[in-house]
Amino acid sequence: MPNALIVWGGWSGHQPEECSEVVSKMLFEDGFDVRVENSTAAFNDDILSGMDLIVPIVTMSTIQKEEVKALCSAVEAGAGLAGFHGQMGDSFRDAVDYQFMVGGQWVSHPGNIIDYRVDVTRPDDPIMQGIDSFDYHSEQYYMHIDPSNEVLATTTFSGDHASWINGVVMPVIWKRRHGKGRVFYSSLGHVAAEFENPAMRTITRRGLNWATRKAA
Q1: Cα 187 from chain centroid?
Q2: Structure confidence by residue, pLDDT tens digits, 132-153
Q3: Dihedral, CA atoms, 117, 165, 123, 151, nearest 10 degrees?
Q4: Band (49; pLDDT cuts 50, 70, 90)
Q5: What residues does 175 pair with on adjacent strands?
Q6: Residue 30 in contact with residue 209, Cβ under 8 Å?
Q7: Which of 26, 126, 169, 211 has its CA 20 to 30 A from that of 150?
């Protein structure tokens, strides 16, 4: 049975506790032994050493140097890292090692909650299989992105809310490697209710499972 650690906290507007409950239930249904903590103090060697999957659900918070070092080391050694929206893409603004591992960092969402299109770019990938491009209502994330990411879906900015980014194509969903670990990220999921979107829920669920440490 794979083990998963969910750590929630930070800005309450992203409903971290509610999102952790949704993710915990999904992982439990998929056969995981799930541990849930609400402090970054859980990012320590004693806890992380036994984890196959780590899911940060933390926005705009801080993390101690020894905690981020332990987290990055665990992923480099093979633990999976997976998450969504600002809960993983805007967790620790002063922790560049963490951002390097995630493969991106949120910087803006012009227009706030708007309608936009998610374009599937890798329909052949198992995470995206059977999912067509779809409309979405949420924050359209503008991010600083690592060019080594394997991008699975994108969105195109209209320029209606920031004219100078008209036509910019931005990654929405990607996967990558960090050392021996697999990393999955989706910018969808502002609040827990967004998991009611079938495409978003399926993609996130598959991404969590894909990132999990694989048996040797």
Answers
A1: 7
A2: 999 999 999 999 999 999 999 9
A3: -130
A4: confident
A5: 150, 184
A6: yes
A7: 26
| Cα–Cα distance measured from residue 104 to residue 118, given in angstroms and rounded to the nearest whole number | 18
Closest CA to 139 of 48, 13, 12: 13
Q: Which residue has the tokens 């009611």?
A: 196
Residue 75, both tokens: 């992923």
Burial class (CB in 10 A: 0-12, 13-18, 19+), 91: buried
pLDDT tens per residue across span 155-181: 999 999 999 999 999 999 999 999 999
Q: Write the DSSP string, the chain.
A: --EEEEEEEE-GGG-HHHHHHHHHHHHHHTT-EEEEESSGGG-SHHHHTT-SEEEEEEES----HHHHHHHHHHHHTT-EEEEEHHHHHTS-TT-HHHHHHHTEEEEE-TTSEEEEEEEES-TTSTTTTT---EEEEEE--EEEE-TTSEEEEEEE--SSS-GGGTT-EEEEEEEEEETTEEEEEES--SSGGGGGSHHHHHHHHHHHHHHSPPP-
Q: What is the pTM of this model?
A: 0.97
Q: Is 112 left (phi over 0), alpha (psi -120 to 50) or beta?
A: left
For residues 24 and 192, what is the distance between their CA atoms, to the nearest angstrom? 12
**What pLDDT digit, counting tens, does each position of 118-128 carry?**
999 999 999 99
